[in-house]
Specification:
The chain is α/β, with parallel strands linked by helices. The protein is 45% helix and 12% strand. The structure holds one DNA strand of 29 nucleotides. It comes from Echinicola vietnamensis (strain DSM 17526 / LMG 23754 / KMM 6221).
Amino acid sequence: MDNKNITKILKLTAQLMELHEVNTFKIRSYTSAIYSIDQGNISLEKLDKEALQKINGIGKSIAEVIVQLQETGTHEYLEELLKETPKGLLEVLEIKGLGPKKIKTLWKTLHITSVHELLEACQSGEVAKIKGFGKKTQESIIQSLEFMASNQGKWHYADVEEAVETLHDDLVQLFGDDAVSLTGAYSRKNEIIEQVEWLIKSEDPKAVFKKLSSLKPLQQDKKTSSPFTWRGKLGERDLSAVIFVTSPSTFVNEQLLRSASRAHLLAPLEDGTPLGSYFKAGQFESQEAAYKAAGLAYVVPELREGQFEIALAKENKLPVLLEEKDLKGILHNHSTYSDGKHTLKEMADYCQELGYEYLGISDHSRTAMYAGGLDIDKVVEQQAEIKRLNEEMAPFRIFSGIESDILVDGSLDYPDEVLASFDFIVSSIHSGLSMTRKKATARLIKAIENPYTTILGHPTGRLLLRREGYPVDHKAIIDACAENKVVIEINANPWRLDLDWRWVHYAMDKEVMLSINPDAHEKKGYFHMKYGVLTGRKGGLTKAMTLNAMGVQAIGEYFDKRKENIKK
DNA sequence: GCCGTTTTCGGCCCGACTGTTTTCAGTCG
């Protein structure tokens, strides 16, 4: 069992302990053990009881618990707690804004033991009447429940990627490369996937179904399947999967129709025919040939969203999209100076090992106490270390940055002379997230207008499927970035992907550059760059408009020049 | 339950934010 799953179970244990009012210091032990595991970079997988106890915060009993987890997937104490807990309450624990204490109150006073009962109690106004609760709490519970319901059965692209790619390889093995095609939202590299779809070319659907039944990760739902359409689930995740079987004569038509979004297919051609109707009626050798016949340049699947691509395809002006290999460096990363798992040197070494020319380190600024934000002394210390490492590692270079909190009033988190000591600054909002659109926009614009802001970090603060971002006026933000020559981050963490791809094209139109930033808190975080590239590509991002596609020298000059302009 | 010692028992206790209160409790990152 990996660290992530271990801490997940320990967290559940701690929550249940709170629910059952176990000694608070005992609970604290669990939470501090979790913190220690999260922060450290020691894999617990192969450690025995003795080795576990050497880790700060883990003593005899928690070590025993972890050993049990490794051996059985659960532990005795957890099982005991679960026995005393109504099953439905476990789901209630997932609700944002509700902790164990409040849940206990709901359980003991209103006898609520499930999400369903909770929703009813909120709707009837019972919850607001309890001491310690109020109308706002009741309203926010309803909102959370609605948000959760709307996200049922949806997954992050990155979460399903491995299962999808593995099955795709299996399908290719079974049916041949030219007879299998991924379609749907996944083929367009959408950030959220509700269903994965394939198209299989065959005259004999029965034979196809038979072969499919040999694939272990697939479980067919016979009720919803039909003679040409296999429906069911993929893998343990309960991911909805559909496999269409189509004859060779309509394979290309189906590929075109099933890979594009509705908006793309509704786009009219010169004579007014919707593209979808044209694709349906015609006979084509290949997808490329179909676009050509329609008088369009070839549109890659990820652009088939009905945004701007048809107009550009008509004029043969589709951009050459950014590729991962175009990226020369990685900006916006954290180290052990704040809440990262690996040291500055480890982060730099690994970055160099992956073939990049530079690393931008931007730990949290001092206001971010929860993340070990750097006070001014630490900033000085880190910059000295960067200077030393740069001498050692040349021509590789570390740029000294900071992820400065944008404070509630829109100002940055250090006095000007400290801000001036960095090569670049990523300005982001981390606290005070519940704002009106007007307030959030004004706060961001003030930070954008600060001459020290180089990059605007995750502009909406959203966490996909978990938290809506604060509402912002995207146009106003992008316009302000254009005016102040501020780069906008495409935060490549699959939970964020923020700036959203739907705004990338507008930003480029305004000549705002974008930066693909992994926001890495550990070495393997660099691999998220890939999802940032996908996001950029969906918005039509080019190499020329990507900040970190610049080589080390060019970006060094870019940072210097920006700083010179501040002095003037 | 963990830690650290003034060494086997006593202390442990983040800070901002929100919504409830009207000085605080609960939650979150």
